[in-house]
Amino acid sequence: VQLVESGGGLVQSGGSLRLSCVISGSSLEYHAVGWFRQAPGKEREGVSCINSSDGTTSYEDSVKGRFTISRDAAKNTVDLQMNSLKPEDTAVYFCAADPDFYCSDSGPDSPADFTSWGRGTQVTVSS
Question: How many CB atoms lie within 10 A of CB 26?
C-alpha cells in the first residue's frame, strides 16, 4: 500500500484546509486509515482515524468539532477537513494505513499501530 498526501499550505488562524490522502493498492490491504501530525521537536501524534469496514471515526480531543475525516471508497482517498485552524495545529501531517488496526475512541492512536505511511504535507497556521 502506498499513500500520498496533498493539500497542505499556509493559512491564517481561523482558516481552513482540506488534506487528501490517495491510497494505492487494494482496499483489502488496509482497514484503518489515520491522520497523524508532527510538530518540530515533538513526537508524532494521532489526529483522526477512520475504519473502512464501517466508517466509524475517532478524533484527538484538541481537534474534535474542528476536523472531519472522510473516506471515498470509489476514489480510494481519505480526506481531512480542517476548520478553525490554530497556530498550534502547525505540523507536518501524515496519513497512515494498517490492515488490522481498528480505530476506536479510546484515546490517541499510536504511530506504532500503523504499518504504511505517506511522506507528509506541511500545514502552517499563522497567528
Answer: 9
Q: Residue 22: what pLDDT?
A: 96
Q: Which residue has the cell 484515546?
A: 107
Mean pLDDT of 103-115: 86
Cβ burial, residue 61 (10 Å; 0-12/13-18/19+): exposed
Whether the predicted pLDDT of 83 surpasses 90: yes
The pairing of strands 32-38 and 17-24 is unpaired
Structural contact between residues 97 and 28, judged by C-beta atoms closer than 8 angstroms: no
In 3-state terms, what secondary structure has residue 5? strand
Q: Which amino acid would we find at residue 8?
A: G
When the pLDDT of each residue in the chain is averaged and rounded to a whole number, the result is 93
Cα–Cα distance between 16 and 108 in angstroms, integer?
23
Q: What are the cell numbers at 104? A: 476506536
Q: Which three cell numbers stand for residue 99?
A: 490492515
Rounded Cα–Cα distance for residues 103 and 9 (Å)? 27
